[in-house]
């Protein structure tokens, strides 16, 4: 078992840590069952709504379910998970006692060609007053080299924020030449169901298409220190101040933002009707992995 000091040192150095088998098998079984039920509800649907996101396959033109938005608001099992002692202990180690969850998403990454996610930095989407901002990723299925695993570029969280714009609009992906250069040092993330990743918001990362027959469901939470305030204002990411306070998962929301120097590029102007990273990246010309 890695000590807390070693875990924190690894996170600070490479911008991410992978905690194997962090979530008990019985909880993974419950997550699997709940996800299966939610996917069943979507059977027969063809268009996206607030909960389900469909992407049109480029070859067949048929809709494919890619993501369940805000699962913590859909079923309590997802809200309870981020508050689990196993996860919360690490969050407090990395972020401090006062912690806020911005949102969650469940990327389904089903077998047979689910969408790639091009190289990007989360910080480019939602810069804050300080960069104690990270993402928690829970592997509901095994993540293997063949089912579109996440890829991280170690140490990239200490560098610049790359341009994520294409043709004058924010497209949610870095330019292909930057992606090609940076990805040379990328590490493929693998792990058994129940393993959890914690990655810094400035870390460069991506995932290729899942061309295997195995699903790769990956549950993500956007989490930050409560004194990190969104530069776009609380009304941009939350339902005002009360909505911000309601997202506290440890401690309390401070009214005194902590300012720390960090590189920032605002994600503007936004593409019209681009409601997610999938649509943003498809409308830009920075694809290297897309179907």
**What does the average pLDDT come to?**
92
User: CATH topology, what is it called?
Assistant: Jelly Rolls
Query: What percent of residues adopt helix (DSSP H or I)?
Result: 25-40%
From the helix content, strand content and strand pairing, which structural class follows? Answer: alpha+beta
Per DSSP E runs of 2 or more residues, the count of β-strands stands at 14
Q: For the record, what is the CATH homologous superfamily label?
A: q2cbj1_9rhob like domain
What separation lies between the terminal Cα atoms?
40 Å
Order of helices and strands: HEHEEHHHEEEEEEHEEEEHHEH
CATH class: Mainly Beta
Instruction: Tell me the fraction of residues in β-strands, as a range.
Output: 15-25%
């Amino acid at each position: 078992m890695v000590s807390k000091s070693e875990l924190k040192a690894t996170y600070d150095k490479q911008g991410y840590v992978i905690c194997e088998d962090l979530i008990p098998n019985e909880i993974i079984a419950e997550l699997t069952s709940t996800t299966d039920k939610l996917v069943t509800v979507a059977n027969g649907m063809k268009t996206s709504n607030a909960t389900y996101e469909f992407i049109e396959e480029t070859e067949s033109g048929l809709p494919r379910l890619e993501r369940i938005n805000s699962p913590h608001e859909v079923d309590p099992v997802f809200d309870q998970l981020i508050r689990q002692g196993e996860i919360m202990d690490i969050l407090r180690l990395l972020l401090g006692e006062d912690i806020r969850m911005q949102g969650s998403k469940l990327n389904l990454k089903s077998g047979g060609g689910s969408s790639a996610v091009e190289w990007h930095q989360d910080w480019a989407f939602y810069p804050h007053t300080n960069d104690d901002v990270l993402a928690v990723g829970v592997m509901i299925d095994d993540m293997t080299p063949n089912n579109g695993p996440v890829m991280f570029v170690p140490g990239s969280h200490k560098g610049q924020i790359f341009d994520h714009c294409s043709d004058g609009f924010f497209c949610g992906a870095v330019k292909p030449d930057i992606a090609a250069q940076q990805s040379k040092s990328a590490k493929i993330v693998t792990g058994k169901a129940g393993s959890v990743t914690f990655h810094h918001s400035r870390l460069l990362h991506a995932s290729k298409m899942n061309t295997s027959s195995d699903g790769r469901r990956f549950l993500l939470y956007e989490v930050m220190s409560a004194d990190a305030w969104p530069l776009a204002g609380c009304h941009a990411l939350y339902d005002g101040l009360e909505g911000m306070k309601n997202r506290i998962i440890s401690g309390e929301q401070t009214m005194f933002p902590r300012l720390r120097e960090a590189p920032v590029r605002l994600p503007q102007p936004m593409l019209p009707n681009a409601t997610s990273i999938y649509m943003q990246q498809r409308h830009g010309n920075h694809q290297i992995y897309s179907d």
